[in-house]
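Hi everyone, sorry if this is the wrong subforum. Our group has a chain we'd like a structural model of before ordering constructs, and none of us has done structure prediction before. Sequence below.
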Amino acid sequence: MMAINTSQIQAMLEQIRATSSQVTPPSNRVTNIADQLTEPASGTKAAEKSDFASALRATLDNVNELQVKSEQLGEQFVLGNDDVQLSDVMISMQKASIALQTTVQARNRLVSAYQEIMGMQI
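Answer:
Right subforum, don't worry. Here is the predicted structure as tokens:
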């Protein structure tokens, strides 16, 4: 029987925290999924305190919002809007790209962890 390596899980959670703080500005920060998973429930069930599905949906909505904003800024720049600078377009595109890459990597790690757990013998 294989033991679960908690150091790898903690390392992944730290990477998620570090990346999410870089991607979203503090005023629009979505509650970090990793923080929700590691916070102890104070007298209530963890499912009542934070629903994983709603946290995941909020994170995906945030990534989608970054993608849409990036696309809109790009369109405005191409149309010749003087209020939109090329640097703003490039920064928004990079933020959207990093957010998408982070989401894909988190998904890949979750799938890998799921497959590892399903492969364990009881």
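For your construct planning: Confidence is low (pLDDT under 50) at residues 26-31. The chain has five helices and no strands.
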